[in-house]
Write the structure tokens for this entry.
Amino acid sequence: MDGALDDQQNNMRFLGIIRHNAERLARLTGDLLALSRIELKTQEFRFAPHLVNELIAEVLDTILPIAEKKPVDLKQERAPEGTPVFCDSEALYQILSNLLDNAVKYTPAGGAIAVGVQSSPSGGMLEIFVRDSGIGIPAEDQPRLFERFYRVDKARSRELGGTGLGLAIVKHLVRAHGGEVRVESLPHHGATFFFTLPMHPPAGWPETELHPQFTPS
Ligand SMILES: Nc1ncnc2c1ncn2[C@@H]1O[C@H](COP(=O)(O)OP(=O)(O)OP(=O)(O)O)[C@@H](O)[C@H]1O
Ligand SMILES: [Mg+2]
């Protein structure tokens, strides 16, 4: 408003900065709303039986262009066909996209990311993992990683545009399914995030067909 609009050298750059910050603010507001809805338990979940491979594949489709841009290699390790998961598909989408967003952000170009399901489910719970070959997380930071606003390297994270809410949201969404989330990492040797979800509906749940199609609400 002070005249930069007519500054032909810089006006596009200024618009870029405005857009970048508007997007950042929108993401932050969205994340804060998501967190408070989950914490206040006003978030409505639509739990239903799904096929785990299909849900994971749908999320990968949306992240693939971002991975290719970096570039990092992004692969799905498919579970045995027909492996069921009982979850809210939109919540699983949010969990995986937050974990994959981090994996891409914190893995240098040329690295590799894999998403899949651990081979032996126990206690009726399926364990899904997101593994990257990136910068890793120091042991002393790992216990606090899932706290809201916690970031390992403030300077680096700011550069990468993070606010530190992604993993807090992941933890709450996983817990809402009765699952747990954890991380294994060695600095400079990548990080693997694991979370568990139930495979089957609780006893007495209405009989439904498996939903092979992912339909974001
Ligand atoms: N795959 C990973 N490899 C290395 N460090 C990670 C990885 N995932 C998360 N971290 C560390 O954990 C911190 C918290 O992650 P979280 O997703 O909560 O926040 P963010 O990515 O910084 O911001 P936001 O997700 O809100 O945009 C990150 O800032 C980063 O330091
Ligand atoms: Mg994040």
